[in-house]
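Help wanted!
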Amino acid sequence: MTAALIDGKAHAATLVERVAAAVPAFAAARGRVPGLAVVVVGDNPASAVYVRNKLARTATAGMRSIEHRLPATVSEAGLLALVATLNADDAVDGILVQLPLPPHIDDAKVLVAIAPDKDVDGFHPVNAGRLATGLPGLVPCTPTGCLMLLKDTVGDLSGAEAIVIGRSNIVGKPMAALLTAASATVTLAHSRTRDLAGHVARADIVVAAVGVPELVRGAWLKPGAVVIDVGMNRIAHTDGTTKLVGDVAFAEARAVAAAITPVPGGVGPMTIACLLRNTLVAAHLRAGLPPVVGL
Ligand code: NAP
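Answered by r_m:
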């Protein structure tokens, strides 16, 4: 068997088109387009690339983005003051504070300061609680994108055996919650899991969000499984070049699975598209407008 490739780029482009198509109706109802504020502290080059991408895609979707750049020396109080200003600004529907923050600033303190209804990253404990209890709210972008890819690939997830490897607050735990809500039977594995290969072997759906290059081997997989590889690991070659690889041994897995996301070009593009989707969702929730159908 050669697994079908799940084309995250194409799915993401379709999602951005859907978001863009819904913006004019919001603008007609509210007299403005949805607005996303992106806060960047310091000059981490990786963050700069992510943020540039996010801002460019926001414009593609016809939404407004506002970038706030603060020096690495800004105090925690200074950053919290900016967040408070953005919370109070009615033209701002989504607030994203790009991580990592400098060591003198407490990430958790900043993330809980963001108004939950503007928390487009979905990291606020209020949104985590809403997800856990089935209430409408903002869900982290990466697992939202993974669920969309799974639904498009598999269809109904009800009763499927799923394993999520990795239990971070930003990927693994919300992924497990989303799959549970979709009525899959979910195993949440982590670094203390005994016999990971044995758990993976039972799974119809494998979501790997670990950060260990090629941890999941092809021989572990159930034939016909659908594999979502969230991992983004940069590997250095001896000649000085680097390569991005996932948490799944791609070539091996492709010979066993029914469908698999490539790295890059799988989950990554969906994460940014879901940020735009979340900004539109936040704008609708805040305005008391009904949810956009098909998002
Ligand atoms: P994280 O916070 O470091 O969490 C990693 C998780 O993997 C932890 O729960 C850890 O278990 C578990 N783990 C570590 N080694 C393991 C092992 N040998 N066997 C089983 N589980 C193991 O990472 P993250 O932020 O969730 O990110 C995970 C990966 O996804 C990274 O490669 C990251 O770059 C990538 N990522 C990609 C996107 C995207 O848009 N494509 C977005 C976010 C993250 P413990 O809890 O027991 O320590």
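OP: Thanks! One thing I noticed: Residues 28-116 form a domain with the Rossmann fold fold (CATH 3.40.50.10860).
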